[in-house]
Amino acid sequence: MFTSRRVIAAAALSVLALTFIGCAGPTKMAEKSQQKLASGDMWRAWQLATRALDREPLNPSAREAAAAAGAAISDDWQRRIGALAAVDSLRAAEQVLEFVNFRGNAAHYTTLAVSPAWSTAERTLRQSAARRSYTAGREAMAAKRPKLAFERFSECARFEDPWRDAAKLADAAYQQALTRVAVMPVTCAWGDVGVGQDVADSWRDAAMHQLEPPNARFTRVLGADAIDSRMTVAQLAHLPRAEAVKLARKAGAQRVVLGSLGPVKSETNLQYFREKVARRIVQKNAEGQSVTSWVEVPIEVVARVRDVDFEVDHEVVSTKDGTTLAHQRTPLHRRARVVWTSYVPEGELDRYALVSDVLRAADPERAKAIETRWKTACGDETTLQQVLSASRQSRETRGAQDARGTLARFALGTAFVFLQELPGAQELARAAAEQAWQPLVNDLAKLDAVDDVDLGVAGTDDPR
Question: Among positive and negative, which fits the CA dihedral 438, 440, 441, 447?
Fold first, then answer.
């Protein structure tokens, strides 16, 4: 009983100590805040004071410290804005917005009142900035720069909302700034018409997804029906540049994407891996204990590798006058690899290893040489377990591979074990070309906010 009373008393003292520390913490932080303010570090003082209030909202010392630090920041901000207004009223207005935002956030801790004269000065600066943005927006519209005009009219609302008819003008500018893009079937130096259509479909789908707001504010990629429905079979096979531009303009596009696939260069060779790999065996000894040992298993793996090289070319053209807005020629290289082995694994696949721990410890140079030969023949990412699993499965499901899905993995350069035939060079190139949309998307993204006038497009009337 005596011991229990001592424990209870000790626990009560601990609670009192924790309570005291909890109360003293914010007070100490408030004192530190006042010291920082006295030394001229008002922002650190504000940080300490608000942290103290976050822990104890009604702490009087912390409230006093927050009020003092906030007042110092407010006075300093007013002084800097006043000095800046004399040389750059627009930057001064930007600072006003930041100051107003600070006061709004600070209201959670303390009230930062400003004088009526300062409120008037703020309003004057904001109205002046709104007026300048409004004027700049009208000038941009007159100069046939609707994208810039939209930016300037939208700025008005930041400074003064509403401001005259800025919102209405911003909407009108946005409608003129919208840039519709048509992706034409790609010209192919090999294959049939379907290749060019499939590649264009892939590029179009990627551009639609990647250039959604907010990634691109003005660019809208037209669907396939907007173009394909207007084209004849002969045009799908080959469409001269001038006709492509004219067709896209009739479809309502302001920009058109033209692409081509160059001739395919292909090289195929065989690579071999002939070595002894390790297989782990677990057996019971005379005492009934499990004993692990490694045995060497001879295996021969044959890899057939096909390298494909070709060029992908794309061009973004204005439908107003045929001006080239962006152009890139991208070399592509893809490698496909199929692996075959006659070895049939026994038991669980995780008991196989290229190199056993015993060999690695006894002869690290040989272990490294085996791993290097494997990577040379089978690829950096292909594992022994993949090869053995494919060997086993190929005997269970002859010819049951998903050819289209497999081809997509080849196109992405994914390490893959496929115990059948390599895809043809043109087939592999086709799949790679369908994935080669990133350079085009990058160009369209760069062009998104730029007006045609600034790209050198002739100032003809918009066909819309």
Answer: positive
Taking the model in full, what pTM does it have? 0.76
Pairing state of beta strands 352-353 and 265-284? Answer: antiparallel
3-state secondary structure string across 292-315? EEEEEEEEEEEEEEEEEEEEEEEE
For the chain, report the end-to-end CA distance as a whole number of angstroms.
94
d(CA 134, CA 418): 64
Strand-pairing partners, residue 183, are: 257
**Residue 276 Ramachandran class (φ > 0 left, ψ -120 to 50 alpha, else beta):** beta
Q: Of 139, 133, 147, 140, which is closest to residue 451 (Cα–Cα)? A: 147
b/e per residue 309-334 (b: at least 16 CB within 10 A): bbbbbbbbbbbbebbebbeeeeebeb
Rg (Cα) of the chain, in Å, rounded?
A: 36
Q: Could you give the angle at which helices 193-210 and 425-434 cross, rounded to 10 degrees?
A: 20
> Does residue 298 contact residue 276 with C-beta atoms inside 8 Å?
yes
* DSSP letters for 144-155: T-HHHHHHHHHH
259 phi, psi to nearest 5 deg: -135, 160
**Element (H or E) spanning 364, and its range?**
helix 364-378
Profile the chain (464 residues) by mean pLDDT over runs of 10 residues.
46 40 73 95 96 94 96 96 94 96 95 94 96 96 96 94 93 96 92 86 96 94 84 68 92 95 94 94 85 92 93 96 96 90 90 94 95 93 90 66 48 48 88 95 97 84 46
41 Cβ contact partners less than 8 Å away, ≥ 6 residues apart: none
Coil/strand/helix, residue 358: helix
Nearest CA-CA partner of 138 in 161, 160, 170, 162: 170
**Cα of 341 vs its chain's centroid, Å:** 40
Strands 179-183 and 255-261, bridge-based pairing: parallel
Q: Quote the CA–CA distance of 438 and 395 in Å, as a whole number.
A: 40
H or E segment and range at residue 30: helix 2-38
CA 62 to chain centre: 43
